[in-house]
Amino acid sequence: MARTVRFHETGDPHVLRLEELEVGEPGPGEVRIRVEAIGLNRAEAMFRRDRYIEPVKRLPARLGYEAAGVIEAVGAGVTGLSPAQRVSVVPAFSQNDYGVYAEQAIVPAAAVVRRPDNVDAVSGAAFWMPFVTVYGALVEIGGMRAGDTVVLNAASSSVGLAAIQTANRLGAIPIAVTRTAAKKERLHKEGAAAVIVSDEEDVVACVRGLTGGRGADHVLDAVAGPGVTDLARAVAPDGTIFLYGALSGRPTPHPGMELGMPALNVRTYTLFEVTRDPRRLRRAEAFVASGLETGAFRPVVDRTFELEEIVRAHEYLESNAQIGKIVVTVPR
Ligand SMILES: NC(=O)c1ccc[n+]([C@@H]2O[C@H](COP(=O)([O-])OP(=O)(O)OC[C@H]3O[C@@H](n4cnc5c(N)ncnc54)[C@H](OP(=O)(O)O)[C@@H]3O)[C@@H](O)[C@H]2O)c1
Fold first, then answer.
1. Are 149 and 170 in contact (CB under 8 A)?
2. 330 lines ligand 1 (CB under 6 A)
């Protein structure tokens, strides 16, 4: 039996319950993990509210995409993984099928990456998703090069901070956008070349000023909604806007239609484009692991909670006070 988080109805954080459940053995292509730490992700809060990109298909539901732990058992047909290995779990599955908010969890072997010896459980639960997300958009698809500029909003999110580190590693220029001046100084310390406070400054004018009028080569938009039209004014003619989140919760117009149909590259993106493609995932793994090895990448953990504090942890996630990842630890 393992303590497992589930919800029996969708809604605010209080719907989350910690329950004792039978875990069972991993099936073909699966592994069972003793979970040591869980990285929280906005997608989980959205899934809990049934506002995620996929609906909750049945209740009670599990949740959770990111974790670090140790393999306990491997199912039939799994190669290259064995009990006692230290691993991290990356989002490569549907939360309707699997969830890692638990003391023990069964996940697909394809969602497991090795955790380097020098990476503790909290860091191992914190860094994969953000860095793999950014790698896929900016490096694998966007082909980001030295000297490129990248505008990223929700800059204090785990993905925003990973984008700052990734841009700096490649010699590109990260321009961070946050709503609040309170986070400005910290974002500079985290490596942003410039920080725009969207509640106080004109994002388009600032980006144009910072890029000599050309606009940004890449835009990573976690917010979407009506603000996407401003981002379309701030991107260079041959640049790309990656819509990868929907924090605004508002409908997103097609900015090209708003702006008189200029040539405009705007695409939606999820990290599943990487994590469900074994070759891309292996490249992402190498990119992220080598960045950790050299110190170019370091996970930014805002705060940790324990598993029994899962409701408070989700409340804190939705408060938007965090800078970096919120991690839930699972005491043995
Ligand atoms: N497509 C993918 O594959 C993928 C993968 C991972 C994450 N995501 C998405 O990326 C985003 C960040 O995820 P995360 O888990 O790293 O986030 P997080 O830690 O929950 O990020 C929260 C930050 O986003 C900003 N924010 C929140 N609501 C906002 C709003 N209405 N308008 C503008 N900014 C807002 C806040 O920063 P300020 O107050 O400083 O503005 C807040 O601190 C989420 O939308 C998530 O769904 C997508």
1. no
2. no
Whole-model pTM: value is 0.95
State whether 252 and 306 are in the same domain: no
For 324, the 3-state DSSP assignment is coil
- 207 and 193 within one domain: yes
In a domain, 284, yes or no: no
Residues 234 and 155 in one domain: yes
In a domain, 52, yes or no: yes
pLDDT value of position 116: 86
C-beta of residue 112 within 8 angstroms of C-beta of residue 85: no
- Residue 248 in contact with ligand 1 by CB distance below 6 A: yes
Residue 244 Cβ < 6 Å to ligand 1: yes
For the segment 221-280, what is each residue's pLDDT rounded down to a tens digit? 999 999 999 999 999 999 999 999 999 999 999 998 888 888 899 999 999 999 999 999
Cα of first residue to Cα of last residue in the chain, in angstroms, is: 13
Contact 240, 142 (CB under 8 A): yes
Residues 277-332 have pLDDT tens digits of: 999 999 999 999 999 999 999 999 999 999 999 999 999 999 999 999 999 999 88
Which has the minimum average pLDDT: 3-17, 65-79, 146-160, 258-272?
258-272
Query: Which amino acid is located at 16 in the chain?
Result: L
Last residue of one domain, picked from the residues 221, 252, 270: 270
Domain of residue 60 covers 2-127+299-329
Per-residue pLDDT reduced to its tens digit, 152-173: 999 999 999 999 999 999 999 9
Q: What is the CATH number of the domain that holds 262?
A: 3.40.50.720
The CA 156 to ligand 1 mean position distance, Å, reads 8
Please check the confidence at residue 118 and state whether its pLDDT lies above 90: no
Q: C-alpha 44: how far from its chain's center?
A: 11
Tell me the three state secondary structure of residue 294.
helix
Which residue has a Cα nearest atom 44 of ligand 1?
A: 245
* CATH assignment of the domain containing 12: 3.90.180.10
Ligand 1 neighbour 156 (Cβ under 6 A): yes
Residue 107 and residue 227 share a domain: no
Residue nearest to atom 32 of ligand 1 (CA): 248
Q: Choose the residue to mutate in 38, 40, 41, 303 for probing ligand 1, maximizing ligand atoms within 8 Å of C-beta.
A: 41
Question: Same domain for 226 and 251?
Answer: yes
